[in-house]
Specification:
Elements: E1 2-4, H1 6-12, E2 18-22, H2 29-44, E3 48-53, E4 71-72, H3 77-86, E5 89-93, H4 103-110, E6 115-120, E7 130-133, H5 140-150, H6 159-172, H7 183-194, H8 199-207, H9 212-223, E8 226-228, E9 233-238, H10 240-245, H11 257-261, E10 268-275, E11 280-287, H12 293-300, E12 304-305, E13 309-314, H13 318-328, H14 333-337
Parallel strand pairs: 2-3, 2-5, 3-4, 5-6, 6-7, 9-10
Antiparallel strand pairs: 1-7, 8-9, 10-11, 11-13, 12-13
Helix pairs in contact: 2-5, 2-6, 5-6, 6-7, 6-8
Length: about 350
């Protein structure tokens, strides 16, 4: 764990400040849960916080308390720029380097004249003045809980804060089933429920709000599922054409890669999603056991993340990207086969 200049940050926050809270590009449940959880906490402390995210986030997260106050940098650029310029500090949540916000917003942040405070659980973070980095944590939302705890303010956690943090932890742990879910995580979750998080309603809002198109796209993804049994690997492809045919909305492919990992005996899984607008193939990797998809993504697909969950991208065509992926498997055969025993 890295805890850098926390006492100084605590002193800085003793008086009201204009604060911007930033999440990563293509925000997921943890990004939105942690940013909005911190937003509500700082507001209760008398600060003037604003959440700015690079672009749109999934519809199934729009119900989160405070979501309607969030600025999108790509769409509400003038409001976002104004908030950033008047802020006295920027919190960077759920990402480890400025490039994770996309080039347009990155340029704005790199020109920022005040300090950054990083709170994140991804590996190999860049260096900032204030840092709370812990790669052992299951989610940044759990880290926000512990940040509030370190500020001696757990009594300030109300229903809105608890709801946001619970959502972030739940989504980033696959509903508490990933290996990163510890006994401490469950104790935090228990406290959040005691403080007002309605676990059944949160789960329903996130997972039981499927559109017809999303389910059709899932069906297409499962038809595209391929298994490479020799390497205990499975992968899914989704083309841009298939997205259009099934009325794709942001968030519709969330969690689909886990179907590939759920195949009996599967240790390594990937999903390849074509994005013609950006001219790339987006990739999500998952693994069981000791095989590090973080290093695999860093070494071959300009990405990274966690040991068992990471992302990457390819500027090759879908066909060439999949061929590259499959061609790499022999090199990692021993690591994959010895990674996890049923």
């Amino acid at each position: 764990m890295i805890l850098k200049h926390f006492d100084e940050l605590q002193s800085f926050l003793e008086t009201p400040k204009n604060i911007v809270i930033v999440g990563h590009r293509n925000p997921d449940g943890d990004a939105m849960g942690s940013t909005l959880g911190l937003y509500h906490y700082l507001k209760k402390k008398g600060h003037n916080p604003t959440v700015v995210v690079p672009n749109e986030y999934p519809d199934f997260l729009h119900w989160l308390p405070g979501s309607n106050t969030t600025y999108r940098f790509d769409w509400q650029n003038s409001q976002s720029q104004r908030a950033i310029k008047r802020s006295e500090i920027i919190f960077l949540l759920d990402f480890n380097a400025l490039h994770r916000v996309g080039s347009d917003m990155q340029n704005t942040l790199e020109a920022y004249g005040n300090d950054f405070a990083l709170i994140d659980h991804h590996q190999q973070p860049d260096d900032f003045k204030y840092m709370y980095s812990d790669t052992e944590m299951c989610s940044t939302s759990q880290m926000i809980y512990h940040f509030i705890e370190k500020m001696n303010d757990l009594d300030l956690i109300d229903k809105d804060i608890a709801t946001c943090l619970y959502t972030g932890i739940m989504t980033d742990t696959g509903s508490f089933r990933f290996r990163s879910t510890t006994s401490l995580t469950h104790r935090v979750i228990a406290d959040l429920i005691d403080k007002g998080a309605e676990n059944d309603r949160i789960h329903s809002n996130v997972y039981d709000s499927n559109s017809y198109g999303r389910l059709q796209l899932l069906g297409q993804a499962l038809r595209n599922l391929k298994e490479v049994s020799e390497y205990k690997t499975a992968y899914i492809t989704i083309s841009d054409k298939e997205k259009v045919e099934n009325s794709f909305k942001k968030g519709d492919t969330e969690g689909v890669v886990n179907y590939a990992l759920s195949i009996s005996g599967s240790v390594f899984a990937a999903i390849f999603i074509e994005d013609r607008e950006q001219g790339i193939v987006k990739i999500s990797f998952r693994s069981k056991g000791s095989f590090s998809v973080n290093m695999f993504a860093r070494n071959h697909f300009n990405g990274g993340g966690h040991d068992n969950a990471a992302g990457g991208k390819s500027e090759l065509s879908m066909k060439e990207t999949v061929e590259k992926f499959v061609s790499l498997l022999p090199k990692y055969k021993e690591e994959i086969l010895s990674s996890y025993e049923e």
